Amino acid sequence: MSLSQQSDGQSLPPSYFEQMYAADPDPWQFETSEYEAKKYAATLAALPKAYYRSALEIGGSIGVLTEKLAARCQSLLSLDVSEQAQARAKARCCDLSHVEFEIMQVPHQYPPRTFDLTLVSEVGYYWGWDDLPQAQQQIAQQLEPNGHLLLVHWTPYVEEYPLTGDQVHEAFLSQVGTLWRPLVSQREDRYRLDLLERL
Ligand SMILES: C[S@@+](CC[C@H](N)C(=O)[O-])C[C@H]1O[C@@H](n2cnc3c(N)ncnc32)[C@H](O)[C@@H]1O
Known about the structure:
This protein is α/β, with parallel strands linked by helices. It has helices at about 15-25, 35-45, 65-70, 85-90, 130-140, 165-175, and strands at about 55-60, 75-80, 100-105, 115-120, 145-155, 180-185, 190-199. The protein starts with 13 loop residues before the first helix and ends with a strand. S-adenosylmethionine binds near residues 11, 59, 80 and 105.
């Protein structure tokens, strides 16, 4: 799929991301952007607990946020579909022995263990309507009671993304009362953040 091709409503495949990382090793300027640095600070500030025993990060990319999150976790598993991105994340976190990495395409693959924190930052809008419900189910199933789910997503429309950030957050918020208790909700100019606690 070319980068400019419009999505047909299905999740974007691993090849889409491998193509992006081949063209630019840091396509979203995670290492240098002031916007990202501020958003990462807000992301970590939204976490109610000082430390998490076992955290999961979906779509860890080149590991800039992974490295920061690692300071708040006893163990952290970071998943991505891109081998190229994850190689850079591994190099960045090579001194952090409590951080593990796996190539997995969520929700078609999911780690067979439970977590007390799952971070879904700037990755949910790459799922299509077909995969979003399964992703929601996997995330909820593998999160311990009172565990935290942190959602952070860009809100402006992006033509080639199957979903918008708002659609992702609203899908999880529609499960409030049955699966989740909302703890934090923030909307900024270009992104929104929701912290949900598993019932
Ligand atoms: C925009 S980056 C987000 C990086 C990081 N979470 C952050 O907030 O800075 C999205 C990453 O998600 C990965 N990704 C996309 N779809 C995925 C899926 N279904 N399962 C796991 N990772 C995925 C991409 O390869 C990419 O590295």
